[in-house]
Amino acid sequence: MDIFILILKLCAGVGLFLFAMYLLEESLKNLSGRNFKLFLQRITKNKIGAVAGGAIVTGILQSSSMVSLMVLAFVGAGVFTMKNALAIILGANLGTTLDSWVVATLGFKTNIEVIAYPAVFIGGLLLILFGKRKSIKYLSYFLFGFGLLFIGLAFMKTAMEAQVKSFAFAQYAEMPSIIFLAIGFLITLLVQSSSVTMALTLTALHTGAVTFPIAAVIVLGSETGTTIKLLLSGIGGTASKKRVVLGNLLFNITLTILAFVLLKPILRLITDILDIRNPLIGLVTFSSLINLCSILLFLPLLDPFAKFLEKFFKDIDATVAGFIGNANISEPQTSLDLFRMETAYFLHNAMVLNLEQLDIETSWIISKAEFKRINDSKKFHLKTTTEKYEFLKLLQGELQMFYVALRTKLDEDDYAELNQLVSSARSSMYSVKSLKDMNSDISNLLRSSKNIKFDFFTLRKNQTEELYKLLNIIMEKPEQISYDALHTALNDVQNNYTLALNNFYKEVQNNAIEGIDTTTIINFNRELYSSNKAMVMAVKDLLLNEKEAEVFNDVHACR
Q1: What are the backbone dihedrals phi and psi of residue 45, each rounded to the nearest 5 degrees, phi first?
Q2: How many other β-carbons are positioned within 10 Å of the β-carbon of residue 228?
Q3: What does the domain layout of the chain look like in residue ranges?
Q4: What is the pLDDT of residues 64-86, one digit of tens each?
Q5: In the Cβ-directed half-sphere of 140, how many Cα atoms lie within 13 Å?
Q6: Is pLDDT of 465 > 90?
C-alpha cells in the first residue's frame, strides 16, 4: 500500500509540474504579446539569427513545443523559409535546456518552501483580488506556476527518495542502455514535455535511483520523444510543413544515435576535462552540450539539407489562402497573426483587381515581395478578371470560416482586432464588387468617342491611382503615417467625388450630351466613390487599433 501511495505522489508531482509549465507558458506568452513573434520575424533573416532567435525565445518562454508549432505555421504560410525554420527549431532545442538549469541549480539546493509557498500565496491572492485585469492575471499565473513547479518537484523528490529506500534499483543498473533510451522516449511521449522527463531524471539521479550514465541515456531518449507532438501537428498539413517536421525528426534521430554511440567520450569530457563532479550539473551540461553540438553539426549543412527535404511530399494546394491554411487554432495568438497577414494579402489582391478593372497599370503594386511569391504560386496574375473575382470570393469565404472558428479560442481583449480584420476583408470585397457591377459603364466611358465622357473617366481614374498609391505607402509604413494619412485620403475621396460631379454639371450646360450618357457618368462616379471609400475603410480596419478606429469612424460618420 505504501508503494502505491508513493507512486500516486510521484504522479501528483508530475501533474503539478506539467500544470506549472502550462501556467508559466501561458503567462509569458500573454505578457509578451506579439513581441516575441515580431522579434523572431525580424531576427530570422539568416541562419545564425534564426538559431539565436529560437534559443532566446524558447529560453524565455520555456516551451520548445510552442515555438516549434508557431514556426510550423509560419513556414507553411511562407513567413519563414524552410531553411530558417529548421534553424529556429535547432535554437529552440537548445533554449529549452534553460529550465533544466533552473531545476538543477535551485530545485535541489534551495529550501523549496522559501521559494514556492510565497510565490503560490502571492499569485493566488493577486488572481482572486485583481484577476480581471489581464496583466495582473498573467502575472498571477507566472507566480503560481513558478511556485507549483518547485512543489511538484518536491513531490517527485520525496516519492523517489522513499522508493529508493524500499526498492532495489541497483539490480536494474546492468540492463542494456537501449532500454533506458526507450524509457526516456516513452516518458516524453506520454507527458509531451522533455522538461518533465528531465525533472524526473534529475530527481532519480539526486536520490540515487539511477547513475549519471543511465540518466544521460534517459535524457537522450527524450530528445526524440519530444518530436512526436510536432509530428502529429504536421499530419495533413502542407508539403512545406511536412518537410520541416521530417527535418526536425531527422535532426533528433541523428543526434540521438551519434550521442548514444559517443556517450562514454561525452561523459568523460564532462567529468574529467570540464571537471564537473556534481551529477545534476553534469546532466544538464550533457543536455545543453548535445543540443549545442547539433547546431554546430547541422547549421553548415542546412542549405543542402533543405534541398534534400524538398524531394519529399508533393505540393497540393487545397486552399486559396496564403497564410491561414497553415494555421492551427490551438495556437490562437499565432493564428491571429496569420489572420492579419491573410487580410493584408486579401486587401492587396483586391487593390490589384480594382486597378486592373479601371485599366490602371499595376506593375508598381504586384511586385510587393511579401505577396508576390504566393500570387506566383497560385498564378493569380495570370487569371482573368472574372477568375480573380471568384478567387477573392473563395478567399473571403475561407477568412469567414476561420474567423468563426478562431473567435471562440481568443481572449476578449483580442475580439476587437479580429472583428476589425474581418471587417477589413468585407470592405475590400465590397470595393471590388462596386467596380465589378459597373464593368459595362467603365467599358462605355473608356472607349467613348465623346470627350466629355472619356475625360471624366480619365480624371477619376487618375485620382483613384493616386489614392491607391497613397494607401500602398500607408500599408508599407503604418507606424509612421497611418491615422492622419487615412483621414486625408478619405477626405480626398469625398472631395474628388463632389468636385467631379459639380464640374460635370457645369460642362453639361455647354455641351450637348444624351440623357443616357449623363446617367452612365453619374452612376460611375457614385459607384467609384463607394468603392474608393470602402477601400480606405478596409485599410483603416487593417492598420488602426480599436481606439483609433473608433475616433476615425466618429469623425467620418456624418460624411
Answers
A1: -80, -20
A2: 15
A3: 2-309, 324-556
A4: 666 776 777 677 656 677 778 88
A5: 17
A6: yes
